[in-house]
């Protein structure tokens, strides 16, 4: 059982480049989310989705886009990378948004913007 | 705005000692989560607390929730080196699916 799979694990970009971080889950979870983790700040929610075709903004959505065309996949797009977006990005999923179950986290993508 | 505050942010303990990590939050919530993160790794779920007065225990860790005080605690009993990690609490407000994390408590257990 793969759980939540994130690719790539590491990425270096130049300022202004765009890229997509991939996230896939095989647990048939309705709820998926993206967080960024910066030192001393815990995890901050970027965007989330409560099901295919439905997305919403979290605490820090600026500079990021998401879409949810299938239940399994929830890609995060950086439109024009900036050094402030250097961070570790985690994707997570749970059965439903109102679920009492904890979220399952992927292994993270370590992103550096030069 | 929802705020989740953990303290202490750094904790160095001797093996065998007891200590408590505190998590305060600023909005009404009926769901609080505790996660553990080892350096360079992902987050692992420890506890889910769903009601006022909820208490859960796993090994040397015990978590509790007081929704009226908007406070959760993570108590460590007779700490061992393997408990060294960063511990996060996370809160989901009643009205939205927006999970907010505390800044984390970096725990180091020394022999």
Can you tell me the residue ranges of chain A where pLDDT is under 50 for at least 5 consecutive residues? none
Q: How is the main sheet of chain A built?
A: 7 strands, mixed
Oligomer: heterodimer
Strand content of chain B: over 45%
Please tell me how large the radius of gyration of chain A is: 13 Å
Question: How far apart are the termini of chain B?
Answer: 41 Å
Number of helices of chain B: 0
Mean pLDDT rating of chain A: 93
Helices and strands of chain A, in N-to-C order? EEEEEEEEEEE
Q: Termini of chain A, distance in Å?
A: 36 Å
What's the Cα radius of gyration of chain B? 13 Å
Helix content of chain B: under 10%
Q: Kindly name the structural category of chain B.
A: mainly beta
Helical stretch tally of chain A: 0
Helices and strands of chain B, in order, run as EEEEEEEEEEE
Helix content of chain A: under 10%
Going by helix content, strand content and strand pairing, the class of chain A is: mainly beta
- Tell me, what's the shape of chain B? globular
Which stretches of chain B are low in confidence, meaning pLDDT under 50 for 5 or more residues running?
A: none
Entry keywords:
heterodimer, A: 114 residues, mainly beta, 7-stranded mixed β-sheet, 4-stranded antiparallel β-sheet, 0% helix, 49% strand, globular, B: 111 residues, 6-stranded mixed β-sheet, 5-stranded antiparallel β-sheet, 11 strands
Describe this structure in words.
The complex is a heterodimer of chains A (114) and B (111). Chain A is an all-beta fold and 114 residues long. Chain A is 0% helix and 49% strand. Chain A contains no helices and eleven strands. In chain A, strands 2, 4, 5, 6, 9, 10 and 11 form a seven-stranded mixed β-sheet that branches. In chain A, strands 1-3-8-7 form a four-stranded antiparallel β-sheet, with no helix packed on it. Chain A is globular, with a radius of gyration of 13 Å. Chain A starts with a strand and ends with a strand. Chain B has strands at residues 4-7, 10-14, 19-25, 29-37, 43-49, 55-58, 61-66, 71-76, 85-93, 100-101, 105-110. Chain B is globular. Chain B contains no helices and eleven strands. Chain B is mainly beta. In chain B, 0% of the residues lie in helices and 59% in strands. The interface between A and B is medium-sized, with 27 and 22 residues.
């Amino acid at each position: 059982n793969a759980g939540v799979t994130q690719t790539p694990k590491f990425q270096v970009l130049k300022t202004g480049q765009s890229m997509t971080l991939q996230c896939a889950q095989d647990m048939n979870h309705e709820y998926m989310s993206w967080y960024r983790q910066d030192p001393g700040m815990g995890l901050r929610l970027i965007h989330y989705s409560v099901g295919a075709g439905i997305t919403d903004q979290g605490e820090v959505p600026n500079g990021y886009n998401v879409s949810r065309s299938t239940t399994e996949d929830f890609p995060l797009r950086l439109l024009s990378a900036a050094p402030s977006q250097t961070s570790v990005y985690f994707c997570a999923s749970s059965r439903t948004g109102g679920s009492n179950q904890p979220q399952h986290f992927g292994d993270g993508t370590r992103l550096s913007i030069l | 705005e929802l705020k989740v505050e953990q303290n202490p942010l750094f904790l160095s303990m001797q093996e065998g000692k007891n200590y408590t990590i505190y998590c305060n939050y600023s909005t009404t919530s009926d769901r609080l989560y505790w996660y553990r993160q080892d350096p360079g790794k992902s987050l692992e779920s420890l506890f889910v607390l769903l009601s006022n007065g909820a208490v859960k225990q796993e090994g040397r860790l015990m978590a509790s929730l007081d929704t009226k005080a908007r406070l959760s605690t993570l108590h460590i009993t007779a700490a061992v080196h393997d408990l060294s990690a960063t511990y996060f609490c996370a809160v989901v407000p009643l009205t939205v699916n927006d999970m907010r994390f505390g800044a984390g408590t970096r725990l180091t257990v020394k022999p």
